Amino acid sequence: MFRRRSAALFAAGLTAVLAGSVTGAGAAAGGDVLAMAGVADGYASVSALGINGTTGGVAGPTVTVTTSQQLAQYAGANTPYTILVSGRIQVSGLVRVVANKSIIGVGATAEIAGGGLVLGSTTRPGNNVIIRNITFRGASDDSISVHNGAHHVWIDHNDFYPAYDGSVDVKHQSTYVTVSWNRFHGTDKSMLLGHSDTYTADIGYLKVTYHHNLFDGSNQRHPRVRFGDPVHVYNNYYRGVGLYGVASTENAGVLVEANYFEDTAHACHSASGYDDSGPGRLVQRGNAFVRSGTCETNGAVGEPSSYYSYRADSATSVPSLVTAGAGVGRI
C-alpha cells in the first residue's frame, strides 16, 4: 500500500526541470540543484492521499530569489517551483507557501529573518513542500507553520534561532511530515504537534517523523504532541535542554527511539501529561541518558515501520553524527 519514491525517479524528474527554464537573480548549476533537492524519508516519503512521496517543486522551473517580494510571488504561485533562496531575505509576518514547492537555500548563507513560512490556507493547500538549507532567525510568529491540512512536507537541514512563537509547528489536520537534520539554537517553543487540547479534529492526522535533529540549549517541545499516532522521534541529540525533551499528551502515541539525551533533566513526559494536557502514550527504546532523567513511558504505540522503512543509528553514535551533519551547509 505504501512505498518510497526512489532516488532515481526523483533525480530523473529534477533533471527534466533543469532542462527547462531557469530564471531569477541567478541560478545554481544543474548538479548543485540536484544535490540540494535530495529525497525525502520518514513519513514524508509515504505514498498516500494522492501523492507518491514528497517531491516539492520538481515538476516546475527553478528560480532564484533575493527579496521578500520574489519569495512571496513564487511561493504563493499556483504552479510548481523550485525556489533557491540566495543570501539574507528580510520578511514581515508569514510568507504563504502553497502546493508543490521546493524552497532551498544556496550555500550556507541563505536566511529568512524577521518572519517565517506558513504552509497553505483554507482554500489553497500547502501540500508537497520541501524546505531545506535555510537559517530562520527572529520570526515575529512561527518560523515554519504547517497547518490547514497540509500533507507531505519535508523540513530538512535548516538552522532555527529563537522566534516569537514556535520554530516548527504542525497542526490543524496536517500529516505525513518529516523534520530531519535541523539545528535548534536556544529556541523556546521548538516544535508543537497538535493545535490544542480541545482541537480533536487533529485525531487521525499528525503523522510526523523527527530524526537527526540537534536541540542545542533549547527549552521545550522537542516535540510536544497531542493526538498524533504514531509519531516517531529517533536519533535526535538533546544537549543542555531546559524544561523537557518530549511530551506525549492527550492520548498521542509517540515512539522515542535511539536518541541521545545529555544534560536534560526531564527527557520525556507521558503518563502524567504535561501542564494542563492529559496523559499520552509513549514507548522508549535504545535511548542514551547522560546526566539526564529517563523517559516516562505509558501504554503502547504503533510501529512507524508499518508506514516506511528506516534504520536507526545507535544512540551512542548520535552526538558525532548529528553534530557533523545537521544544519545548513551540509547537503
TrEMBL record:
InterPro entries: PbH1, Pec_lyase, Pectin_lyas_fold, Pectin_lyase_fold/virulence, PEL. It is found in: Secreted. Keywords: Carbohydrate metabolism, Lyase, Polysaccharide degradation, Secreted, Signal. One of its GO terms (molecular function) is pectate lyase activity. One of its GO terms (biological process) is polysaccharide catabolic process. Pfam families: Pectate_lyase_4 (PF00544). Transmembrane segments: none annotated. Residues 58-267 form the Pectate lyase domain. The keyword Transcription regulation does not apply. Its main location: secreted. Residues 1-27 form the signal peptide. Gene3D superfamilies: Single-stranded right-handed beta-helix, Pectin lyase-like. It comes from the Bacteria. One of its GO terms (cellular component) is extracellular region. Belongs to the polysaccharide lyase 1 family. This is Pectate lyase. It comes from Phytohabitans rumicis.
